[in-house]
Write a structure and sequence with these properties.
Helix 3 packs parallel to helix 5. The protein is of the alpha/beta class and about 280 residues long. The protein is globular and about 55 Å long. The protein has an 8-stranded parallel β-sheet with strand order 1-2-3-4-5-6-7-8. About 45% of the residues lie in helices and about 15% in strands. The longest helix is centred in the N-terminal third of the chain and has 21 residues. Strand 4, helix 6 and strand 5 form a beta-alpha-beta unit. The structure holds zinc ion. Zinc ion binds next to strand 1.
Length: about 280
């Protein structure tokens, strides 16, 4: 079996979902490393109006990630941040775009503390994947730029949740203006290729095969949401190990080293080989 195998973006929800059981499915199928994203704050703790709500969201995620790490042959790391769609919920609750921006930036400040103080590996930010008014779009871009500033300061990567498409050159230029190298910006939920950030390719067969045939660094993910109300809405936690097995059979072993060893080292500074326990 090919090792290591990293799912770059999966959620574990110990409040409403399967939590660490889903990580066990991943490990049983051959998976070794996970980046665990916090579920949006409203799923875990309800309405958030200050730093404490975000802190609680992140603590729940750090805790379930530690338990997942214990059962994996490799490791799990939390990636913490503020879901871009929170802005729309805040507007519905009477916030102005500026007030919403400030609160979301506060949430990112807390996420950056978790990176600086140890448990978290990276920050998540971005902007809505649906159409919004111009002032909301601008506020969202300000939130994202704040994430870049924080990441540059604490020395970590940023995972982005954004609209679809391939050209994110402008976004990585903003990151560089903030002092964050473009190879520390990851576009979550990508197709086989994006211009600018590192692609975290959603693990559909065709997109993965195309990514393998290219030379660019890339990562693999499921975006498993661990939501009992939406079973089968997304790829399950066994998908990345299954796809890796298939891709190795197809002759893409080098590309698998690229996605599971070289790119994680380059983007996050993690060593997925050294963190495998000998059995
Ligand atoms: Zn996600």
């Amino acid at each position: 079996m090919f090792e290591p195998i990293l799912d770059n973006h999966l959620h574990l929800d110990p409040v409403n979902g399967r939590g660490v059981d889903a990580a066990e499915d991943f490990a049983n199928r051959g998976g070794t490393h996970l980046l665990v994203l916090n579920k949006p704050s409203w799923h875990l703790v309800g309405e958030v109006d200050d730093a404490d709500g975000f802190r609680e969201t992140f603590e729940i995620t750090v805790d379930v990630t530690e338990r997942a790490s214990d059962i994996l042959p490799g490791r799990a790391w939390p990636v913490l941040g503020v879901h871009p769609a929170l802005i729309s919920q805040l507007l519905d609750r009477g916030y102005t775009p500026t007030e919403a921006r400030d609160l979301m930036q506060t949430g990112l400040d807390v996420a950056a503390e978790f990176v600086a103080d140890g448990p978290a590996l990276a920050i998540k930010s971005g902007r809505p994947h649906y159409d919004v008014d111009e002032d909301v779009w601008e506020a969202s871009n300000d939130v994202m730029r704040h994430a870049f500033e924080l990441a540059a300061e604490v020395g970590c990567a940023v995972q982005l949740h954004t609209e679809g498409g391939e050209d994110f050159t402008e976004v990585v230029e903003w990151a560089e203006d903030c002092g964050l190298p473009r190879e520390r910006v990851v576009k979550h939920f990508s197709g086989s290729h994006v211009e600018g950030p590192i692609a975290s390719v959603l693990s559909n067969k065709e997109e993965l095969e195309t990514a393998c045939q290219r030379e660019d660094p890339f990562l693999m993910e499921t975006d498993f949401i661990d939501d009992p109300d939406r079973p089968g809405a997304v790829l399950g936690p066994k998908t990345v190990p299954k796809r890796v097995e298939w891709l190795v059979e197809e002759g893409y072993e080098d590309a698998m080293s690229r996605a599971h060893v070289e790119t994680p080292a380059r983007v996050y500074g993690i060593d997925t080989e050294a963190t495998l326990t000998e059995e």
